[in-house]
Amino acid sequence: MESEPILLPCSSDEIKQLKALARSTTAGIWRIKRAKALLGVLGGETPARLMHQFRVPVLSIVRCIREFNHLRMAYFDQPTRAATTREAAIEKMLAFLGNPPPATSDLWGALTLRFIGLSFTAHDIQMIRDIISDEPTAACSRIAEVVCRRLQLLDSHGRPRLTIVKDILTRMAMDNLIYLPPREPATRRKPKIPSKAMVTRREVSGTASHDSMTLTCVVARKPEESILWSAIIHHYHYIPGHRLFGPQLRYLVHASTDREEAADASGGTVVAALSFSSSAWRVSCRDDYIGWNDAQRIRNLQLVINNSRFLILPWIRIPNLASRILGAMARQAPRDWEAHYGRRPVLLETFVEQDRFCGTCYRAANWIEVGSTVGYSLHGHEKRRSQPSRAVFLLPLHRGFRRILCRL
Length: 408
What we know:
Layout: H1 12-22, H2 29-42, H3 47-54, H4 58-71, H5 85-98, H6 107-110, E1 112-115, E2 118-121, H7 122-134, H8 140-151, H9 162-174, E3 214-219, H10 223-236, E4 248-256, H11 259-263, E5 269-278, H12 284-290, H13 294-300, E6 304-312, H14 321-341, E7 347-353, H15 360-364, E8 368-373, H16 381-386, E9 390-396, H17 401-405
Parallel strand pairs: 6-7
Antiparallel strand pairs: 1-2, 3-4, 4-5, 5-6, 7-9, 8-9
Helix pairs in contact: 1-2, 7-8, 8-9
């Protein structure tokens, strides 16, 4: 039921009422999201896809469909739960913008919401509404470009942060804080699978010593490097797929026993691929180890990055290679991340699936095991229980990492 379209019979009057609820700014987030989910089902979307679109658990969507089939529009008379802290904050912002005080009021700057680590005041959101009103047919990318320029949302190189701002605009529209122009229906293309032939099977001597072998970790920036990284991860890593989301750096590791090859960044044999990306939003054992509260975590989470992929090609047999790579990356990745994103991480994290691995190479590279987690899942309790347990490893990069991460 999660991954298949569901037949949901509705009268034209019910559809009209659902559309009115979905566009409301006063009905409450619980009603708004469920009305949007039901309209999505009517449009042929599956609960699994709607889960990602509206950030509502699959079980809640399925329950919503069943109860709506039974109660019809009376389903919306009384929410089945109280508003969450997040929903209450959004509803407060909607009420404020629906009945705004004078432009000179301090409340315009005092009332804020956070989206993907960025704070937006009531004044900012009203400005975004005005931008959309000025260009009612503009594409989301155009609106994001103007928002970046007006709010100075730039990366370390002065470029507009278009990708993250487009995601934020989509989330604001999901909560009816803004109304984005309707998008043209797009044909969904099947993701292109990188060819396995891209990966050359070339062995490196297992007797190569630390002194005779040089490792070079290269950020996969060029198209051919990016394609090779994707092919390696897609065909040889146990996690299906090769796509990463949000801020990320992807690396290819070259090994060489020849000094001339080592001098060339792309010289030598590719022996491994790994990546670093945004950290997990909430991990109980990690958060306890750091000792931060929610406000400190929200503010400083960007200073923690996740070793999201790590793979040594299966035919490579070099003693202590994994811990050597991890040691090298602990020195190089923070510099590269700062150069690319303008902030230097002070803590690395990773998750090791305990049914598959022991985490020996992380321990050898001085990472600290702080606990385990099965993670949060929007798929519901049954699917969450079926997920394997993962050990959580951390590597502090600064002596005062706790002080830095716990400051406001």
